[in-house]
Fold Protein-serine/threonine kinase.
Amino acid sequence: MRFSRKLLGPFVGSLAKKLDYYSQFQPSSLTIQQYLDFGRIGTAANSYTFLKNELLVRLANIMQEFTLLPPKLLQMPSSKMVSNWYAESFEDLLAFEASDSSPDQVARFNDQLTVVLKRHAHVVETMAEGLIELRESDGVDIASEKGIQYFLDRFYINRISIRMLQNQHLVVFGNVLPESPRHVGCIDPACDVESVVYDAFENARFLCDRYYLTSPSMKLEMHNAADKGKPISIVAVPSHLYHMMFELFKVGAQ
């Protein structure tokens, strides 16, 4: 499938050909163990060599799926803004396509990753605004709504995976400090589940008290089948676990 001129706006010609090219490839499947192993023994040069290709593949894949959205949604101002952010980031990272893995290039790449992360910081909210704009215009039929939901599921998973790759690289090989000395990049090899759950609950309860003037209490029971009586610890990205629990608590409070 070729990218339309309408989707890319000012980004046409050679950029469209590169998008077509990279969208033919499947993103690499990575396990958390692979993240850990590479974070401990990998090099900045190898990470850079992998990422400069992998990020182009992932960006091109999700941009291809943009073309499957209802045309009316793509014309909404907020949706256009999101698609332009992705095209702009693709073009920025494409500049490193044929570059070597010298320390200077890796440093420039790290700076560009930081720019991309900031650019995409509000993608979730902006995409939601695009849907609101569509509904306020003339609504959307059931068939289109199912297709949009399918796209959003894939879109947000893709976004999480891209940000994980970028953050992991910047913490391990860039200037971003880890949350604690035991972390390997963004990953905590011994994440304290109870602590994260309580933190998420307290913040959700604060919001609940603020908006409803009351909040439920929580009784947390921990059952560690592997080592009875000891706290449960897992290999995880604490911020991901926190976000999932926080959203679940918010839904429960409603």
